[in-house]
Amino acid sequence: MSAVTPLFSYRKFWAVRFGPAPFLPMSRAEMEQLGWDSCDIIIVTGDAYVDHPSFGMAIIGRLLEAQGFRVGIIAQPDWTSAAPFQALGRPNLFFGVTAGNMDSMVNRYTSDRRLRHNDAYTPDDVGGKRPDRAVIVYSQRCREAYPDAAVIIGGIEASLRRIAHYDYWSDQVRRSVLCDAKADLLLYGNAERALVEVAHRVAAGAQPKTLHDIRGTVFIQKDLPEGWLEIDSTELDRPGPVDAHPDPYAQQPATPRPVGSVDAGSATPVLRFSPRAQRHDRATTVIRLPGYEQVKSDPVLYAHASRLLHLETNPGNARALVQRHGDRDVWLNPPPIPLTTAEFDAVFDLPYARAPHPSYGNARIPAWEMIRFSVNIMRGCFGGCTFCSITEHEGRIIQSRSEGSILREIEEIRDRTPGFTGVISDLGGPTANMYRLACKSREIERSCRKLSCVYPDICSNLNTDHSPLIQLYRKAREIPGVKKILIGSGVRYDLAVRDPAYVRELVTHHVGGYLKIAPEHTEAGPLARMMKPGIGAYDQFKVLFDRFSQEAGKEQYLIPYFIAAHPGTTDEDMLHLALWLKRNGFRADQVQAFLPSPMALATTMYHSGRNPLKGIHRDRGDLVTSPKGLKQRRLHKAFLRYHDPENWPLLRDALRQMGHAELIGNGKRHLIPTWQPQGTGHSGGEGLRQGRKHGAQTFLTRHTGLPPRGADVKSPSPPPQPESKRGTFTDKPASTNRPARAFTQGSPCGSGKRRGGR
To answer: Residue 5 falls within a domain, yes or no?
Structure first.
């Protein structure tokens, strides 16, 4: 594995003489205006081109430009022919292909596999401007356009499909996307470090498909290289003598087998697992996962492979992984080394235009509208929520910008962004309050293999001091021209209660009436499978929130998010959640159902029925049942919207079948009434709405502390016309209804705008 080279220490490529472009060119005419005869690198993306550091193509493009390369953009090309991929000519070095900030399948389909009709990353919110499995389609078109050009894939879609993975939309295990895309190299995670090294080495004459020593890359090869030690973990149980059961998840491999320590027909040393481990050199050791053909046909081995992969995600101790696909190996190098604060600052200080490309004219791009007055202060998440893709893509180590860099960006927004009224909509990231939080010991951090720093409880080695974040908030408020700093990213409340001073600062100065947090559920079973804290942590936070709101003289509400149909959730669990919602006076406006995104641990539970948070065994272990049928998934969503008359017929039938008919009635103790408003519920709950925009995964509530209006109806006759299903904010200005941020599948604990990937 190559040594870590500082991101901006490379000798710049000769084309640096052209200087930075106002916008990276999207046409030949723009190239000519810049004096270019060709592009060194062409980025093909499924998003509209917005030159802003919240958009992957902008960060990649500006970073490569700063290294001296001429970078062009082909945004949302017509994929039905190769011609649009020839718009900028053949790239001198390679095509860089990404589906965009969002997985193309999550972007196009709801959790019920229904087609969405909008796309927040497209001008005027038009849907259908990117193909299904965009990375594969774009890569193939690049090959058709220029068969001899190199193709490198990356971004969140490639990152989450880097090995054999369960695909929810086809309901089958698919190969690594690298095989289907027929690309030369795959970069996963936030790949700035790998991308810069690849670009310079290709510019020096190397072929991308031969670059096998760079962290954060995936490639294909026939055999293991000489001198490497292979740890075979392709099976769980092997026939033989009755010895101690092997531990396939041991941190170190077993003593090599005798008789030459090689497999028949191979010269590669192979280790078999045993309870007692010996030291070995991690830098030249690879773990062999069960092959694609194995995991495709055996869900138990799929769960085993998933657990192994997640245990090898710490850059400080991860080993390489290899998985057989037919007669070839897909090789995954260890994750990239996180950026230093200075490197992270330099990436955000690049000369972004901070606006959509002029070719879009006055078209509205919703994703840009949502983030143009917000600032990303960090990346990564050590929460480890099993349904979330943040840690699989960005990693568990928090990378934070410096205070100075963040304050400079606020001034940039003030001075350069049209329409700024003095309000910063967010200072955040995947979560609002993990800024500068890290393990107290670098040595412990490098050796840790835990999947979460906050589950089942907050690790004693984790620094939970929010003082740097409090100081940042105060300095940001003091910038001339800034009237208000809001926090739009979700707050990790179990961390916040460890530092009440932060909660006071947040509640007093940075809540615009509503604050979103994500308990996700109230019941222990689903929460354990999510790796989320119990509802008691929410109660602790609410006490502090209410207390400090009262002290500040403000009427403010919490907006909790909940997930329906998560693996391990029963109908009874959802009933108890619905009763909790009614008892606390919450009414969901829009709800989210679990969507099995590739590579997530909860997706493994959904597909295999096994819990990869624990050791995988064929004859024992934690079995997980998932709500899979459309009717049951809709029932779970209906429990979240128990107050919606459209759902009452479905809920009445379910409550009777569950033996809880006593909850049907017209009193306060009842969940749903016996009467049905005219013109509602004809479909028996089958027509549940997906929200303002099809499938919007946002949960908006109002907390009054009182039972929902209309719950205490003493007469079986219907009351006056029930309030609008969107009437939860009728006592507040419409502007408090912030738009849905459903950019990528994952926990609402993070702002969707941060979940895109490079």
So the answer is: no
pLDDT digits (tens, 9 = 90+) for 172-197: 999 999 999 999 999 999 999 999 99
Q: How many other C-beta atoms are found inside a 10 Å radius of the C-beta of residue 635? A: 23
| Any domain includes 325 | no
Distance, in Å, from the CA atom of 310 to the CA atom of 8, rounded to the nearest integer, reads 30
Per-residue buried b or exposed e for 247-284, using 16+ beta carbons within 10 Å of the residue's own CB: ebeeeebbebeeeeeeeeeeebbbbbbbeeeeebebee
pLDDT more than 90, % of the chain: 79
Radius of gyration of the chain (CA): 26
- If phi over 0 gives left and psi between -120 and 50 gives alpha, with beta otherwise, what is residue 337? beta
SS3 633: helix
Q: 172 and 204, same structural domain?
A: yes
User: Which residues are within 8 A (CB) of 371 and not within 5 positions of it... i.e. 6 or more apart?
Assistant: 52, 54, 425, 426, 753
Domain count, the chain: 3
Cα separation, 677 vs 87, in Å, equals: 57
pTM for the model stands at 0.86
Domain that holds residue 24: 14-188+192-220
* Backbone angles phi and psi of 435, in degrees to 5: -55, 125
Report the run of H or E that residue 516 belongs to, with start and end: strand 514-520
Q: Find the length of the chain.
A: 758
Residues sharing a CB contact under 8 Å with residue 16, sequence separation 6 or more, in sequence order: 67, 68
Q: Identify the three-state secondary structure at position 597.
A: coil
Q: What is the CATH number of the domain that holds 596?
A: 3.80.30.20
Q: Are strands 165-167 and 172-174 parallel, antiparallel or unpaired?
A: antiparallel
744 and 649 part of one domain: yes
Q: What element of type H or E holds 557? A: strand 557-564
Q: What is the pLDDT of residues 35-90, one digit of tens each?
A: 999 999 999 999 999 999 999 999 999 999 999 999 999 999 999 999 999 999 99
> Domain check: are 146 and 253 in the same one?
no
Kindly state whether residue 361 falls inside one of the protein's structural domains. no
Residue 561: phi and psi, rounded to 5, are -105, 140
E strand or H helix at 472: helix 467-477
Residue 623 and residue 548 in one domain: yes
pLDDT digits (tens, 9 = 90+) for 104-156: 999 999 999 999 999 999 999 999 999 999 999 999 999 999 999 999 999 99
Residue 206 and residue 233 in one domain: no
Q: How many helices (H) and strands (E) does the chain have?
A: 23, 24
Residue 208 and residue 233 in one domain: no
Q: Assess contact for 193 and 136: CB atoms under 8 A.
A: no
* pLDDT tens, position by position, 259-312: 333 444 445 555 544 444 456 788 899 999 999 999 999 999 999 999 999 999
503 & 470 share domain: yes
Q: In whole angstroms, how far apart are CA 550 and each of 82, 500, 553, 554, 559?
A: 62, 15, 5, 6, 17
Q: Tell me the pLDDT tens digit for each residue of 402-440.
A: 999 999 999 999 999 999 999 999 999 999 999 999 999
Indicate the residue type of 290: P
**360 belongs to a structural domain:** no
Whether residue 150 is found in the same domain as residue 287:
no
